[in-house]
Each structure stands twice: as C-alpha cells, then as structure tokens.
Amino acid sequence: MSAVQAAGRRWLRKPALLDAALMALPLLLFFSLSGYQLQLPGLHNDEAQEAGLQAWQLAAGTSIDAFRNTGLGARRFPLMVQDYIGAGFVYLAAPFAWLLGPGTLSVRVPALLVGGATLLATFGCLSSLADKQTAFVGVLLLAVQPSFVFWSRQGVLIASLTVLCTPLVLWAASRYGRSGGWQRAALLGLAAGLGIYAKLLFVWVLLGMLCAVLLLNADLLFKPARSLWPHPPHWQQAAAMLAGFAAGCAPLLLYNLLTGGTLLSLQTNTAVSFYGVDNSALAANLATRLEQLRAVVAGRDHLWYLGGTLTNPLWDVALFLSALLISLQPQRGPRALVLVLLFGLIATVFTVSGLFPHHLALFAPIWVSIVALGLGRLLWRRDGLSVVAALILVPLFLRDVQMDIGYHRLLTKSGGRGAHSDAIERLATVLTTLNPPSVAALDWG
Questions:
Q1: pTM, to two decimals
Q2: By CB neighbour count within 10 A (0-12 exposed, 13-18 middle, 19+ buried), where does 257 fall?
Q3: Residue 8 counted as domain residue
Q4: Backbone dihedral region of 415: left (phi > 0), alpha (psi from -120 to 50 degrees) or beta?
Q5: How many domains does the chain have?
Q6: Rounded distance, CA 427 to CA 412, Å?
Q7: Which domain holds residue 238?
Q8: Which of 210, 231, 278, 380 is within CB 3.0–4.6 Å of 180 for a Cys-Cys bond?
Q9: pLDDT one-digit tens code per residue, 154-187
C-alpha cells in the first residue's frame, strides 16, 4: 500500500471527515441542480407575503406589516405570517434581503440553504437508524429528486421550515429511543415544537410518529407501563420534553394569547376548509392524497408550472419493494418510518386549507429514507440481491437527474406559468419607475 493510500484511509477513519466526504457529492449535486436559473419561475405571491415583504422591511428598518397587526415591540416584529404559518423564515431571509436587496433571490437563496440543511439532517437520521453507507444512498437520492429539487427553490411557498424539521424530529426520536436522557428528550420536544411553529400541518408528522409508536408497542400495552420504553422515562425527561416543545412553539403560543387566530382558524375551517374541502369525506380525501403522493414521489403533474410535466415510474417500484423488505426486517426503526409515512398520510385527509400536493413535501425525507433502508441497504451485500437493487436504484437516480435537466429546459422556455410567471419581474420593474418611488405590491402573476 502506498503512503498516499495509507494516509487516505487514516483520514477517512475520522468520523467528521468521513461524513464530510460522504456529503460532498449530494450537496454538490443538489446546489447545482436547484440553484441554476434561481430567478425562475417568477416570484409567487405567497413567497412575498409569507417571507419576502416582511424580511425586506426588517432589513430596511421600516415599519413592518405584521399579520393581524400583531408583533413584538414598537416595530411589531412578526410572530406569524398566517394563522397557521410561523414567521421563522422571515428572520432567516432578512440578512439576505439586506445583502441582496428586495427581489426573488433574497427569499430563494435561504430556501436553498434550508434544502441543504435538510440533506444533512436526513444523513444524520439515517446514520442513526442504520449506517453511513445507507445514509449516503438516501441523501444522494433526495438530492436529485425532482419534487425536492424544485420545491426547495421556493421553500417558503411550499413547506417553509417543516421539511427540515421532519428529519430533525425523527433523528431526535431515534437518539432518545436508543439512549434516553433529559437532554435528548428536550431536543425531541424542541424539534417537534419548531415544526409545529413553522407550519401547523407538521402535526401530521407527529401524529404519524405517535401512531407508529403505539402500533409497534401494541403487544406491550397490557404490560407494566415501564416495559413500553427501552429506557423507562423519568419525570425529568417528561418535563424536559414538554419544556423543549413549549420553547419551540413559544411564538405560536404567544400569538394565540394575543389574537386567538390559530384557534379561530381551526374552529372556522373544521367541517369545511377555507378552500371548500369537506373534512368528513374521508375516503375521497384519502384517495386524492394517495394519488398526490404517487405523483409527488414520481415528480410529475404538480410541477406543471415549470412548463410541462415529466415522470419517473421507477419510484413506485422502489418505494413498494423497500416497504415490503422493511416489513420483513427485525429492526424497529425502519418499520417505524414506514408507519410514520402511512399514518401521516392518513392524517393529511383533514386540512384547514386545501388538498394541495405541496403539503406532502414535508414527507420527502421519509419516503427517500424508506427506499434507502430497503433497497439501498442491499447495495452493500455484494451478492445477487445487491445486483437487483442496483438495477432499480441506478436507473432511478439517472432518470431523476435527467428529469431535473428536462424541467430546467422547460422552465427556460416558459419562464413559469400561471401565478408563477416571470412577468411579475417585469411588473416590478415598471413599478419602480412610478412616483412615489417606494412601491410595495403583491401579485398573483
């Protein structure tokens, strides 16, 4: 063995350096595919309304148009941007608004960073559930998955910070389930609270986790309560988890103490949602969600506004086979992920807004992790099964990359369709020439 090879092996034995080496390729692919022509499609109304405008006002030092006129201090620093969407992304985007000025890039550059952080959190979660080789497969697939790539560009419009909170809360739950401790309990509560604050629909993930825990422990329900836990919980752990949760969603709690807005929204839209969804039509809503999940996983239909639609049918095969393989495994962690996706999807039939495909974006780290824990783990066996897994996953990966490039070509031609049209940029250019010179406008494209 040469001195260079020996040095390389010693270098890779260091955990932090190995993690960095494994993450380099997925991050490079993700930022290359998602960052290209970032100004397209045009700035959507919700990108401006739910982050951009208030971030620009923060950066400029002007008065802030806080939602329901409710905020902190004389300038009314915002607590929420909608009754069910937190203002976390506003503060994340504010430094970029100061650096880049008002415009599309000031809300999309931080959105890309959230996407990159989601890859890192997914790597950590999968490393905790399996190993770093499996984690590498998972983040590599997620980095090029078309729905994740193009929705990350408009993250504030799609899922805000919830897509990042999904792998964080699962990672925290895995670490707490394995080792216990009040510190890990507090982190689990904090991740759950931050997810709820980011967007109330994060409750779907938490309900999925709760149902998964109950089902996996169904045989223990009639035994002493302490047997339900790998590490019997102490009151300090319960208190730490509750305190972490309260800290994570503290702005949401304060907002409702001041306005009651979220509670009012839930009360008003319980039977029939704001967009007319009948929440009692459970079967019809579930059928809609199942079809939406298949479309989002395959990267088709919902990205029409880029200029057309493409698809990757191999995702159906990979996800089904992986879920089947996981069901045959003795490990509880991978089976829990499948159940979180299943019960989380069932929970999505209830909504206070609409049955929109982009709601399912927060499940992206989960379905990719399922494929990594199923077929992805077979790649390292060096037998016939690894060949079968490679024959599915390699074409799947290459097709996703091809679709990403194809969608970019469609977007170059169209500039974005409907409410995503790049005509909004030309409108903004005209508005800046008018008197008075300071014009703030929201437009549906």
A1: 0.92
A2: exposed
A3: no
A4: left
A5: 1
A6: 19
A7: 18-28+44-225+232-431
A8: 231
A9: 988 878 899 999 999 999 999 998 888 899 999 9
